[in-house]
Amino acid sequence: MFGGGGMNPRKMKQMMEQMGIDVTELDAEEVVIKTADEELVFSGAQVTRMDAQGQETYQVVGEPETRERGAGESAGADAEAIDDGGGGDEGIPADDVELVAERAGVSTDAAREALDANDGDLAAAIANLE
Fold first, then answer.
1. Segment 34-58, tens digit of pLDDT
2. Which residues are paired to 39 by β-bridges?
3. How many CA atoms lie within 13 A of 14 on its CB side?
4. Spatial CA neighbour of 96 closest among 54, 71, 124
5. Helices and strands in the chain, H and E counts
6. What is the pTM of this model?
7. In what order do the strands lie in the sheet with 38-43?
8. Contact 128, 114 (CB under 8 A)
9. Which DSSP letter does residue 69 get?
10. In what order do the strands lie in the sheet with 21-26?
11. pLDDT for the residue numbered 72
12. Residues lower than pLDDT 70 in the chain
């Protein structure tokens, strides 16, 4: 934060705590940033979450691998089941449906319906199902 140029890490942490900034290291396996044209995939990246006054900020440190948009998604049956199963669900990704179903402990059909009702918002869908 602010360069830190040679500041003792312990002193930096103490100053951040005094300012009400909570820093947490996340054990992330993979981070994917999707742009309109490509995906940046960070495998084994160092991820830090900073919480300051209720605002969360994430910092990702690592070397990304670049791939075409959609190249890493599981094509085929999962995507077709999601696109065809809900009837107008506007292509909610299979990964999102599976995540909501797992987190809320419900079937994939219930998860898909919750995602449809919440315009694809994962957190809102999970909250509604719990």
1. 998 899 999 988 998 888 888 899 8
2. 34, 67
3. 5
4. 124
5. 5, 6
6. 0.43
7. 30-34, 38-43, 65-68
8. yes
9. T
10. 21-26, 46-52, 55-61
11. 57
12. 1-5, 70-90
